[in-house]
Amino acid sequence: MKLQEMIGLPVFDIEEGKKMGKIHDFMIGHNWTILGLELERKALFSNMLKTIAWDDIIAYGEDAVMIRNQQAIRKMKVDNIQFTYSLGKKKLCDLPVLTEDGLMLGRISDVYFDQKMGNTIIGLEISDGFVTDIIEGRKWLPCTSDMVIGENSVVVPPMSEECLDNAIHSVNG
Q1: CA 91, 42, 50: angle at the middle one, nearest 5?
Q2: 101-115, pLDDT tens digit by residue?
Q3: CA 37, CA 106: separation in Å to the nearest integer?
Q4: Most CB atoms closer than 10 Å: which of 33, 99, 104, 138?
Q5: Residues carrying CATH 2.30.30.240, the chain
Q6: For residue 101, how many C-alpha atoms fall within 13 Å in the half-sphere facing its CB?
Q7: Residue 55 CB partners (closer than 8 Å, separation 6+)
Q8: Residue 124: enclosing H or E segment and its boundaries?
Q9: What's the CATH number for 3-84?
Q10: Are residues 121 and 34 in contact, defined by beta-carbon separation less than 8 angstroms?
Q11: CATH class of this structure's domain 96-166
Q12: b/e map of 70-81 (b: 16 or more CB within 10 Å)?
């Protein structure tokens, strides 16, 4: 499944069946795991976010994300988030992907995870620009433990270009 496919999905608590909000973004850790999700905000310039830890998600699917109850929603300071998927200062989306020997593979356009593997990110969708995306399509790069999320780029091993494959439309468990 792609993170982009989940943004905007409603979040419901299963105890009361109450809609708690919609997914606004995802929190990502240095070790290529999804730490949780952010709900949409009411105040634009607040430094606090409503978040749900990945462990508090009971189930998720094409149409909704389910949490046990309202206590799963916690407030978190924006500065305490390692990385996000699409918004904020430390976002993965649009980060350049460079090999250790200086080859630019493209920019991150989406992030894949497999429901069977829980919150582990399994791959990155890489865009090499609009024209190349139309002609050749986007590429998919499997995540490995030696890939590093940096402040201004993702650095991957030297031979990663050989691992690029055509992008997958969806990886569902």
Answers
A1: 60
A2: 999 999 999 999 987
A3: 26
A4: 138
A5: 3-84
A6: 5
A7: none
A8: strand 121-127
A9: 2.30.30.240
A10: yes
A11: mainly beta
A12: eebbeebeeeeb
